[in-house]
Amino acid sequence: MQTIFAEIITIGDELLIGQVVNTNASWMAQVLNHAGITVLQVTTVRDDRKAIMDAVAVAMSRVDIVLTTGGLGPTKDDITKTVLCDYFQTRLVEDMSVRAHVHALYKNRPEVLNSLTATQWLVPSHATVLPNRVGSAPIMVFNQDKRVLVSMPGVPHEMQIAMTEQVMPYLQEHCALAADIIHRTIVVYGIPESTLALRIEQWEKNLPKSIHLAYLPKQGVVRLRLSSYSEATEQEVEQQISTLLPLIDDHVIATDDLTPQAVLGQWLTQRKQTIATAESCTGGRLAALLNEQSGSSAYYMGSVIAYANSVKRQVLGVSPDTLATDGAVSEACVRQMAEGVRALLHTDYAVATSGIAGPTGGTTDKPVGTVWLAWATPEGTFAECRHFSGDRAQITDNAAMAAVGKLLLLIKKT
User: Judging by beta carbons within 10 Å of its beta carbon (0-12, 13-18, 19+), is residue 146 exposed, middle or buried?
Assistant: First the structure.
């Protein structure tokens, strides 16, 4: 089956000046890959007629499907619709179904129905209009020389609903989509990328050319992604994974593309076990990681943000002698913090952090980036000192992720 190529064009000045993070492109790329569409390129352009026109012209010359987001609002800086009219040599006409939808959408907000909103039901005469259930901007599909361009709103939740409910069903029906693009991800923790590469070097050398390996490191986690683009079968990919896993089993935390916190949530839910956290330098970042999982109330009991030593003493039961002799950033302190919050909230596991996130507060013995972590478990309490680089936010994020990653390895041993 022929490979279908796509390009994503995200439109908006706010993306180029860093005011808004371009989450649309990554989300769309995942959906397209899952459907067997290979994303050839992602392009971001400003709200400028020539920039949009040039990007569309280049994309339409090299891929089968072009998906654009942004620039479909009712204000004067939203020019995508008129630029696409010019490119496809068509004109704007009133669409009565879009007009009825917009009126229904704002029936309880009559002040919104003004001369600017009225431009939303003007659509290119040669475009196929797909319903936008949650917004006023129509989804427009253009066909030219067996190539397709789909224009969608840039608001992330609108775009995601449009893609899921309208665009992907349309592409499935009108395009010969490949179904044999395969991506499999193995998630490992606690081993540097270079060390991991050396460990699996011989296996990697023996990989058939039909299967491609990528290393994706982030915050101590390395995702190994095996991909085949209509070249290998699912069985062949699985055979390679079965050969790989014994080589790295001591560091594997997932055989799906899941975050460590999602894996931890699954494991604790399956085991009917619970967890609590005691945080100093991470200031709630670890709690946020645990709380972001749907259903986390089944296993995450709560957290104590013990930034002040008085809270460490009075709430968590850290010994005053420990704080006076070893200090808050010490093995003895985090052990007592972890054990204290575990007893306080009656959980199976507890994790504690205490360190120096910077940019000030570092010493020769304990420079900025020094973080002590502890894990209180049914098998005992474990602690280790880690040294993280970067700014305050990076140190905090890395420490929180290290707390989750190491806990997964400790649980895996049991």
Answer: exposed
Is pLDDT above 90 for 231?
Answer: no
> pLDDT digits over 318-362, tens only?
999 999 999 999 999 999 999 999 999 999 999 999 999 999 999
Is residue 395 pLDDT above 80, yes or no?
yes
* Domains of the chain, residue spans: 4-174, 181-254, 260-413
Lowest mean pLDDT among 39-43, 180-184, 201-205, 307-311: 180-184
Architecture of the 4-174 domain: 3-Layer(aba) Sandwich (3.40)
* Strand ranges across the sheet with 349-355: 300-305, 275-279, 349-355, 370-377, 380-387
pLDDT of residue 374 exceeding 60: yes
HSE (side-chain half, CA atoms, 13 Å) at 125: 6
- Which pLDDT score is estimated for 75? 87
Write out the CATH class of domain 181-254.
Answer: alpha beta
Alpha carbons 397 and 413: distance in angstroms, whole number: 25
Write down the CATH number for the domain with range 260-413. 3.90.950.20
Sheet holding 139-144, edge to edge: 37-45, 4-11, 65-69, 147-152, 139-144, 128-130
Q: Is the pLDDT of residue 369 over 90?
A: yes
CA distance 408 to 414: 10
